UniProtKB/TrEMBL annotation, chain A:
Lineage: Bacteria, Bacillati, Actinomycetota, Actinomycetes, Micrococcales
Gene Ontology MF annotations: uracil phosphoribosyltransferase activity
Highest taxon listed in the record's lineage: Bacteria
Enzyme Commission designation: 2.4.2.9
Motif PRPP-binding positions after renumbering to this chain: 110-122
Protein name per UniProt: Bifunctional protein PyrR
Catalytic reactions on record: UMP + diphosphate = 5-phospho-alpha-D-ribose 1-diphosphate + uracil
From TrEMBL, chain B:
Gene designation per UniProt: pyrB
Sequence ranges assigned to domain Aspartate/ornithine carbamoyltransferase Asp/Orn-binding in this UniProt record: 160-308
Sequence positions that bind carbamoyl phosphate: 54-55, 104, 134, 137, 270-271
Domain of life of the organism encoding this protein: Bacteria
Reactions mediated catalytically: carbamoyl phosphate + L-aspartate = N-carbamoyl-L-aspartate + phosphate + H(+)
Protein name: Aspartate carbamoyltransferase
Listed pathway(s): Pyrimidine metabolism; UMP biosynthesis via de novo pathway; (S)-dihydroorotate from bicarbonate: step 2/3
PROSITE patterns associated with the record: CARBAMOYLTRANSFERASE (PS00097)
UniProtKB/TrEMBL annotation, chain C:
Molecular function terms, GO-annotated: dihydroorotase activity
Cofactor(s) the protein requires to work: Zn(2+)
CDD domains: DHOase_IIa
Classification of source organism: Bacteria, Bacillati, Actinomycetota, Actinomycetes, Micrococcales
Gene (name only): pyrC
Record keyword Secreted present: no
Bound cofactor: record note: Binds 2 Zn(2+) ions per subunit.
UniProt source species: Brachybacterium rhamnosum
Record's function text: Catalyzes the reversible cyclization of carbamoyl aspartate to dihydroorotate.
Name of this chain's protein: Dihydroorotase
Amino acid sequence: MTESTTPVPDRVRILGPEEIRRALVRIAHEILESGHGADDLVLLGIPHRGVPLAERLAAQILAAEGIDRPVEDLAGSLDVTMYRDDLRQHPTRAPSPTRIPRGGIDGRTVVLVDDVLFSGRTVRAALDALGAIGRPSAVRLAVLVDRGHRELPIRADHVGKNLPTSRGERVHVELAETDGEDAVVLARPAGEEETR
Amino acid sequence: MKHMISIADLSREEAIAVLATAEHMAQTQSRSIRKLPTLVGTTVVNLFFEDSTRTRISFEAAAKRLSADVINFSAKGSSVSKGESLKDTALTLQAMGADAVVVRSGSSGAAHLLAHAGWIDQPIVNAGDGAHEHPTQALLDTFTLRRHLRPGEPEAGLDGAHVVIVGDVLHSRVARSNVLLLTLLGARVTLVAPPALVPVGASAWPCEITYDLDEALGQGPDAVMMLRVQRERMVGGGFFPTAGEYSRRYGLSTARAAALPEHTRVMHPGPMNRGFEIAGDVADGPRSVIVEQVSSGVFVRMAVLYHLLATDSREDAR
Amino acid sequence: MTTAPTLLLRGGLLYGETAADLLLEGGEIAAVGTDLEAPAGAEVIDVDGCVVLPGLVDLHTHLREPGGEEAETVETGTRAAARGGYTAVHAMANTTPTADTAGVVEQIARAGESAGWCTVRPVGAVTVGLAGERLAELDAMASSRARVRVFSDDGKCVHDPVLMRRALEYVKSFDGVIAQHAQDPRLTEGAQMHEGEVSAQLGLAGWPAVAEESVIARDVLLAHHVGSRLHVCHLSTAGSVDIIRWAKQRGIAVTAEVTPHHLLLTDESVRGFDARYKVNPPLRTQADVEAVREGLADGTIDIVATDHAPHPADAKDREWDQAAMGMTGLETALSIVQSTMVDREALSWRDVARVMSETPARIGRDEDQGRPLEAGSPANVLVWDPRPTTVVDPAVHASRSMNSPFTGRELPGRNRLTVHRGRVTVRDGALVEG
């Protein structure tokens, strides 16, 4: 996105509830089409908003496969706080729980799920965190929004929406579970310089 | 949170945040690889003017599990025992580039002084200062207790719980920190000690004080915390006539423990004088959480180091 | 002093009461009156609105020389005294070597004389080496050229009752007085601060009030029994005030002193573990502060004495229990008394002259000090301006040490002029080299 001299509205809604729903259905099918059945899969959401997204994907997958099992068997959460490389640049981050589905991750395909893919550093931390827990046969990455500006050689396998942004902008993913309503919003803090 | 000097400096929210982080740390410690990269590249100095192998090892394990480098600087065989002052030691550590200093001293206020005298800028963790405070001990005691009384509630306090703390309150930094933290989290605390081992002025503390152990235990507390009788600190002597008389009146005997409600937990900060303040079979018995306290210590100290070091410590930080 | 200049102090308030001129000539007060004519060659100094007092007398100063020159010397300590408005100080005996022989006390008196900033009256030790075991040669010190009249083991208590009795009896023959540092040693083993709510919280070993009060009670009874006079150093508790009040009602010849710091500071100051607040006797509670102020106001407590106790920085930059006890005080004493007593109308300036000059001079038998502001008196004079305020900064103090507990406080009053034996030693807060 090029710099515009016209005033940018503070918040622009990029995706609404229906678009988010469709994006997740598509991702769920992509995951199944990439050759993995539900038995072989573990979906781990990265707190905070990756966790409900992983649960929704798991529900889609179970429904598509016609399997009657609780979502918790397929989806869990993976906290990456302790593996971040930027802890000393921010106020203290409160860690979130990690919950690994009963079968563990050894020998399975783990799909990491996050709301927004930006620099790639969170995913890097997630890969390290995963390594301390077990040895999956493969790790894939699913995100609702890829906003660009990668700082590491990381790409997503499944993307809900590619959204070109400038660095100064913020992408907010709001979910019914955490925020009351589903939406993806592009926001630009008033007067903020285009630096990170 | 810049330092961990005294429980009196903490808000309830800060205390709960540390305990919640400690729960998180505990969770990570059941993984196949327990070492976390969180503090890689930082150096934690254990500055121990007083011998305490247990506490030092606990802090060392905590720092190493978070990938920090650890330098142990103990009084024995160092320049400290050659009369180097706290100030000179602090200036040395500052010049060497320590990122945090864990300090244990026989002098009340040593950690406070280190944090505030302007000799060193780094976060200071009080690992026990004289008879003043031992905040990480209180945090680990509370952490242990909360797991039993409020299981699965990482954000819970100890509201409504009743804890009886027994023994040498006068010389105990553990008692002082625990009275502050337990009451901060909503628990009711009863101190039990022979009168000479209750500090003059303790009546202002937010707790009840009694000289009668059986009366306190008769209230059916949720936990009984036995303090070590610090015989080496008994300056002037005469705090009680004999060990036997103390043990009869204030020791947690097998019979006293048996009369407690089923759910009551027995705690001791260690090291124990078995058969003196606590009967051996009570210390090893089913209601004892004394060994658990030791593992809690590592989790809590990991959490404290995390809160002090894995943060932007600049004054103008967002 | 033959070289003393002629000075006409114009318009000062004598004892803070009546405006008058004061003519100083030949080391004496030559005339007191209104609209005095300046003799030829006289310097006229306008001191309009300032309070004129007899030069202050400190009955309790630690000059540290010999042996503690890193903290203070007779030279630096008496400079500090002059800046504080003092024209005489009594130098405590806990030096190295101890001031327990005629030789040592004469050396100290001589050093004071040659420094020339104020009169130095050595205090003699009661017991040899302050050890509390046997009496020092008190008569030898009394009849030396230092003419010692005050004897004290200050820093330590003469705790043996028999020894105390003998000392009280012995000094009667040469009109001496025992100044007791009242502290029961057994009750204060390892003690770090006043025993109460704050010590309980901080985990510092308590220094009970009773350790002071029990010794004072014993000593007034002993003084009564043997008919001697007794002086109680740095009394610090409400209970001590009660005991002195009781003793005076019984006609016992006891006098008592309080320090400026005990008139202002409490044990709450210890909470930051800053050893500048570590002192012996310890800072007490607010109730004790109120009681000593009341005792000073009603005359139960006779004098204010500084217990000026300088220490090198290294002795204070330490863990509380390893730090030295004591505070500097000479250069802040009158400001503290003004703010705690005069500005609260608990003492008049006339009373200040009594408690900081006349009575300490009488207890110490300083014939040339604390004299009335009238013709014929030695020209030992303080001119004090009570109107300006100053923020305490030990860096500008003349004392060699920095351990003032009042650092950073804004205090009232300023030394306009100190005159010692007719010589101006301080002018507008600054020392005037002789």
